[in-house]
Design brief:
- The chain has 170 residues and is α+β, with helices and mostly antiparallel strands.
- The strands form two sheets. The protein has a four-stranded antiparallel beta sheet with strand order 1-2-3-4, covered by helices on one side. The chain has a three-stranded antiparallel beta sheet with strand order 5-6-7, with helices on one face.
- Helix 1 packs antiparallel against helix 2.
């Protein structure tokens, strides 16, 4: 007990868990694949009746390619990026769709938020820059979402640079 301050958890000034956006739900995927398979089979059957039987196989390959592309897209949707800001550190934890984890821990006093902005499209890329290292963040977000994210993260970084405030009454 006594003067042991290590047990006290630091307050989180900012925390965000980012995931890639998926516009098509599971049900929507099944409906779309049903439609593609029906159209491919019907068109292939028409060509088969005209005597061009190899076309049926190519329509089947097209449907298979569309299924494979969506499957890869959904698997990549399992990737996450977690950004946490406390008064003493910024932690960026990136988990790939295969489960590989990469983590960066930065000092908020040394970090600058850098952004690449396009005049027409808005914010394209965000970076945390500290001591010569550039960590790309918020890659899953669109330009408008990145603008909102920058605003919240900037406020958290400013609070971290001001330092912790302790209230002896609580």
């Amino acid at each position: 007990m006594g003067n042991d301050f290590d047990d006290a958890a630091e307050p989180e000034l900012f925390s965000a868990l980012l995931r890639p956006h998926r516009a098509l739900s599971r049900t929507g995927f099944f409906v779309l694949m049903g439609f593609v398979c029906t159209v491919s089979f019907t068109a292939g059957l028409a060509f088969l009746l005209m005597g061009a039987w190899p076309v049926l196989g190519f329509f089947g390959l097209d449907a298979l390619a569309i299924y494979w592309a969506f499957r890869v897209n959904y698997l990549r949707g399992n990737a996450t990026e977690e950004i946490t800001v406390t008064p003493s550190e910024i932690r960026v934890r990136r988990v790939s769709h295969r489960g590989h984890v990469v983590e960066w821990v930065l000092n908020p006093l040394w970090v600058q938020l850098d952004q690449v902005t396009h005049a027409e499209f808005g914010i394209e890329q965000l970076f945390l820059v500290s001591r010569g290292r550039r960590v790309s963040i918020a890659r899953f977000l669109g330009p408008d979402e990145k603008a909102s994210f920058v605003k919240a993260l900037t406020m958290a970084l400013q609070a971290a640079k001001r330092g912790p405030t302790y209230n002896p009454l609580t």
